[in-house]
Amino acid sequence: MSNRAVFLDRDGTMAKDVHYCSHPDDFHLFPGTAEAVRTLTEHGFKVIVITNQSGIARGYFSHEVLGEIHKKLETELAREGAQLEAIYYCPHHPNEKCDCRKPGTKLILQAAEEHDIDLAQSFMVGDLPMDIQLGKAVGCRTILIRDTSSTTLPDDVVPDVKVSDMLEAAQAILG
Known about the structure:
Blueprint: E1 4-8, H1 33-42, E2 45-52, H2 63-79, E3 86-90, H3 106-114, E4 123-126, H4 129-138, E5 141-145, E6 161-163, H5 166-174
Parallel strand pairs: 1-2, 1-4, 2-3, 4-5, 5-6
């Protein structure tokens, strides 16, 4: 039997978007993120992070430092009884034109294969057009987290749902 998943962007979706977050002390989860993740897993969703981390290719931080940041993410979630299924990241520079950098589909397809996920029963949640483009490309339903002051989206980016934060996203998914 295949599983349902909620794929989450990290920066700007789950946590404050710090320009090339390069130290665990600079990483801060948004309020409600852990509750949202916990609620989704309690309802049978695997929660998987898909994130671009070009700061590695740019020399701002190493794979090891990113590992420390992700350890902090997992620790903060666990403190509130939440747990991720997995974290996938692209370390490449945008100029490398790899297929794992969002909106490229390599990481989400890898996650779907490794965790037996039915993409048609799954969601991609993010704060940028590339997150929505990725979700659409693999057949997921899409949720855009945007504050009302944000600029308008390109015409070709149409999320299934728009919400203001992770808790609203979880409510929309469980709807």
